[in-house]
TrEMBL record:
<dbReference type="Pfam" id="PF01609">
    <property type="entry name" value="DDE_Tnp_1"/>
</dbReference>
<dbReference type="GO" id="GO:0003677">
    <property type="term" value="F:DNA binding"/>
</dbReference>
<dbReference type="InterPro" id="IPR053172">
    <property type="entry name" value="Tn903_transposase"/>
</dbReference>
<dbReference type="InterPro" id="IPR002559">
    <property type="entry name" value="Transposase_11"/>
</dbReference>
<dbReference type="InterPro" id="IPR053520">
    <property type="entry name" value="Transposase_Tn903"/>
</dbReference>
<protein>
    <submittedName>
        <fullName>DDE family transposase</fullName>
    </submittedName>
</protein>
<dbReference type="GO" id="GO:0006313">
    <property type="term" value="P:DNA transposition"/>
</dbReference>
<dbReference type="GO" id="GO:0004803">
    <property type="term" value="F:transposase activity"/>
</dbReference>
<feature type="domain" description="Transposase IS4-like">
    <location>
        <begin position="2"/>
        <end position="172"/>
    </location>
</feature>
Amino acid sequence: MAKGIKVEGEGEWNARKHGGAKRRVWRKIHVGIDEKSLEIRAVEFTTSDVGDAPMLPELLDQIPPDQEIATVTADGAFDTRTCHDAIAARGAAAIIPARKNAKPWKPDTAGAIARNKILRTSKRVGRTIWRRWSGYHRRSRAETKMHCVKLLGQRLFARDFDRQVAEFQVRVIRHCRSDQWRDMAHSSTASQVSEYPSRRP
């Protein structure tokens, strides 16, 4: 999943101060989310001209090799050889709908073989049934987590790219820490409730 964030550049600051045309510069945030825990597991920060699919292998690389990835769910934009091969390399199953008018790939890699199976199944049962059968609909649950990206702020104030990356990384770290504290508090509350049940007449 990806989301845009605006850079508060000198040109826009001067435009607000002195008037004139505003020049907006955007950056993209690519996020990998655990669909069960809704934990943000991987984040990449790029310029706005970088596509979503090419970043998937780098997102997967951020997850330690000893941590199992059961499935990777993404939309049809990720129906590429690079994505399917990266998913297969992690021993995960891809839940990615084949693009419309898609054709089988040469079955020369594990990723291509798995993708061709998706294509065959989708054509046999129909795209709607395949989405329900495969669990693709669970992707919407992870999408609800994207509202948290808004909590990281809609603007960046650093001017050069490296500092923008650092600025955003600090925000992500703070957000993850707040999530951990919230989970700890919830766990503590749940424990207290179970230990001290309310008395009913």
